[in-house]
Amino acid sequence: MVSEYDFWLLDLDGTLVDVEWSYTREVFDRVGDRLGREFSDQEADIIWNGLTGSRDRQLEAWGIDPTEFWAAFHEEEDPLVRAEQTYLHDDAAFVADIDAPVGLVTHCQEFLAEPVLENVGIHDWFDARLCCTEQTGWKPDPQPVESVMANLGVGNNGHRGVLAGDGANDVGAAWNAGLDAIHVERVGHERRGQCVLGDYRVRSFDELF
C-alpha cells in the first residue's frame, strides 16, 4: 500500500494524534465564559472534530460569529498544556517507515502544532509542513495541499500521491488537488451522523496493510 504512492500527505488532529477529552471540555468552558454562551458536550465535540464539515458554517448556524469564536478559542488554548494532553494513535506508526516524501497539512495553528509534534516525537516524520491560515486557504481548498506538494518537489508532474485525514474536508482537499484520499474514521459514523466517502475508508490505518 505505502509503496503504491510517490508521496504521502497527512492531516494531524484526529488523524495521527488526538487530545484528551478533559482538555477539550475545559477549553470550551473558558471560551463559553468569554462569549457568554455555554457549549454542550455535543457542540464541543462537533466543533473540535469538525463533525459537520465547515466549522465556521456550523458556528454561524448557531448564531456565533466565527471570527469572535476563534479569537477567544486561540486565546484560551495553552500550547504546552495541549501538547501534554495529546497522544499519538498507535496505528500512525507506519508513517515513520514511509520511504517517500511525506508532508503535513493541518488546520492546527503553528503555535499549537509545533509543541504537539515535539511532545509526541513525530516532528521528524515530515519533509514539509503547513499550518493553514487565511492566507494559505483551508481544506477542502486545494491551495494548501498544492503548496506542500510544491515544497516536496512533487507538483503536478506525474507523481502519484495520497492524502490521509479524518474529515470530509481532507477528502475534498485530496480530490481537489488530484490525489487519492484515505478517510480514517476515528469517531464513528453514528457519532458523526454521516458517512465520509474516500478512495479508502478505514477505522484504523492498520486496515490498509
Please describe what this structure looks like:
Helices cover 39% and strands 15% of the residues. By secondary structure, it is of the alpha/beta class. The protein has two domains: 140 residues, Rossmann fold (3-Layer(aba) Sandwich), CATH 3.40.50; 62 residues. It has a six-stranded parallel beta sheet with strand order 5-4-1-6-7-8, with helices on one face. A two-stranded antiparallel sheet has the order 2-3. It holds the Pfam family Hydrolase. InterPro entries: HAD-like_hydrolase_sf, HAD-like_sf, HAD_sf. Keywords: Hydrolase. One of its GO terms (biological process) is DNA repair. This is HAD family hydrolase.
The CATH top-level class label of the largest domain: Alpha Beta
Radius of gyration, rounded?
A: 17 Å
Coarse morphology: globular
Helix percent band? 25-40%
Q: Note the run of SSEs as H and E.
A: EEHHHHHEEHEHEHEHE
Strand residue content: 15-25%
Strand order of the largest sheet: 5-4-1-6-7-8
Average per-residue pLDDT, rounded, comes to 93
Number of domains: 2
Annotated CATH topology of the largest domain: Rossmann fold
For the record, give the distance between the C-alpha atoms at the N and C termini, rounded to a whole number: 6 Å
Structural class: alpha/beta
SSE map:
Layout: E1 7-10, E2 17-19, H1 21-35, H2 41-49, H3 55-61, H4 66-76, H5 79-84, E3 86-88, E4 102-106, H6 110-120, E5 128-131, H7 143-152, E6 161-165, H8 168-176, E7 180-184, H9 189-192, E8 200-202
Parallel strand pairs: 1-4, 1-6, 4-5, 6-7, 7-8
Antiparallel strand pairs: 2-3
Helix pairs in contact: 1-4
